[in-house]
Amino acid sequence: MKFLGNIIWLVFGGIIISAEYLVSSLLMMVTIIGIPFAIQTLKLAILALWPFGSEIRVVQNNSGCLSTIMNIIWFFIGGVWIALTHLVFGILFAFTIIGMPFAMQHFKLAGLALTPFGKEIV
Description:
With 122 residues, the protein is mostly helical. The protein is globular. Helices cover 70% and strands 5% of the residues. Helix 1 runs antiparallel to helix 2 and helix 3 (65-93) runs antiparallel to helix 4. The chain has one domain (2-121). A two-stranded antiparallel ribbon has the order 1-2. The protein contains 4 helices and 2 strands, in the order ααβααβ. The chain has helices at 2-28, 35-49, 65-93, 100-114; strands at 56-58, 119-121.
């Protein structure tokens, strides 16, 4: 069932979402300062490509204070807008029973988009 959900997700926008994250990641890698943010955007691209069956976990051996500071910077330079976009799409999909699984995936992406540092995708 997860496989079918991922195929439907890919056909109806998952590839486009993932490509957008990939392009933005490549653009951020142009500068040294943007590399940590590019890595987080790659994380979003991977999750946007195959969200059903993927799980987001907090990394136990993360850098603590540094990941908190990076999450705050991420939030103000665009993370809030990415999260709000996924939240709006999740709410729109949640209006129908058929769209509920896709809404849950958008909510998962919104959570990761809000604070990506210190998390991993399993």
